[in-house]
Design brief:
Blueprint lengths: L6 H4 L26 H8 L17 H6 L7 E7 L4 E6 L2 E6 L22 H6 L18 E2 L19 E2 L8 H8 L32 E4 L15 H16 L31
Antiparallel strand pairs: 1-2, 2-3, 3-6, 4-5
Length: about 280
């Protein structure tokens, strides 16, 4: 659920592609957050990140990504939001979610059912679906194809391709710009199943065992990525440790500087892109 401190609102995924990677074709599950991009990209460009200020919050994750080494980040401050009076912090496997009595609990009061996801089902494998022959996946199933340059959208809807879209099966020798660059670098195609979050059986009290406006909630995200099992009552010492750490961050937090929404900044006003839209000289 977006706009919350639950995993659905704070967890993101992505991929890294670079000829500088010493190890590739693997899934990294180490902790990383957006502040780490600055020192990580500097390192990838050859900068000596040891000369960066010691108080810099971001971590250099380049060796983690490039060499598949252990991560250097041990904690993630998800957010401290004085507007909704909510906050969350993860240290190692454990994550604490807090909200005051006057918090906005409308969007942060219980466990939310994940939206149905597009997944590569066994049925897709069994039918060996091939868009070139006119057989396309049913809606709700997932297939991954490379496209010619004139059709760089991935069809996740299960609808028939439009006339200007030419599908290429994975592993085929022709493709778009990205495919050709990868081929020139000697990278071969790798067919993998999607990386799915495994929730396990949902307990009957998953939607009620955390009332965050009443008391803090604690989860082992590694073992319980869907936040089914509130462990706060079992591990009060961990709750206390994470609470103190949150208080430390909150004590040094700067006042929020959020501005009202400006519809002129919407991507719909800029050919579908997020771009600077305010001219400071005006």
């Amino acid at each position: 659920m977006k706009y919350t401190q639950w995993e659905g609102g704070v967890r993101g995924n992505g991929f890294v592609w670079s000829p500088r990677l010493q190890t590739s074709q693997y899934t990294c599950t180490e902790l990383m957050q957006i502040e780490d991009l600055f020192p990580t990209l500097l390192h990838s460009a050859g900068y000596n990140t040891s000369s960066l200020p010691p108080y810099l919050y971001g971590k250099d994750m380049w060796n983690t990504l490039s060499k598949h080494e252990a991560g250097v980040r041990q904690e993630v401050l998800h957010n401290i939001d004085p507007r909704t009076n909510t906050k969350a912090l993860r240290i190692g496997d454990m994550k604490l979610i807090m909200a005051g009595k006057n918090s906005n609990t409308r969007t942060l009061d219980s466990w939310y059912k994940p939206e149905d996801i597009l997944r590569l089902t066994p049925a897709v494998h069994e039918r060996n679906i091939d868009p070139l022959s006119g057989q396309v996946p049913l809606k709700g199933e997932f297939t991954d194809y490379l496209f010619h340059d004139n059709a760089d959208k991935i069809d996740l809807t299960g609808t028939e391709p439009s006339a200007n879209q030419t599908f290429l099966k994975r592993g085929q020798s022709q493709g778009g710009v990205v495919w050709n660059i990868l081929r020139e670098l000697g990278r071969t195609s790798v067919i993998r199943d999607p990386v799915l979050v495994q929730c396990g059986p949902k307990p009957t009290n998953a939607s009620t065992n955390c009332q965050v406006s009443i008391s803090s909630c604690l989860y082992n995200i590694t073992a319980d990525p869907c936040e089914y099992h509130n462990l706060a009552a079992q591990y009060p010492n961990i709750v206390q440790t994470l609470t103190k750490r949150l208080q430390y961050y909150e004590s040094g937090a700067a006042p929020i500087r959020n501005k009202p929404n400006d519809p002129k900044g919407s991507p719909s006003e800029h050919n579908g892109m997020w771009v600077p839209w305010v001219n400071l000289g005006e």
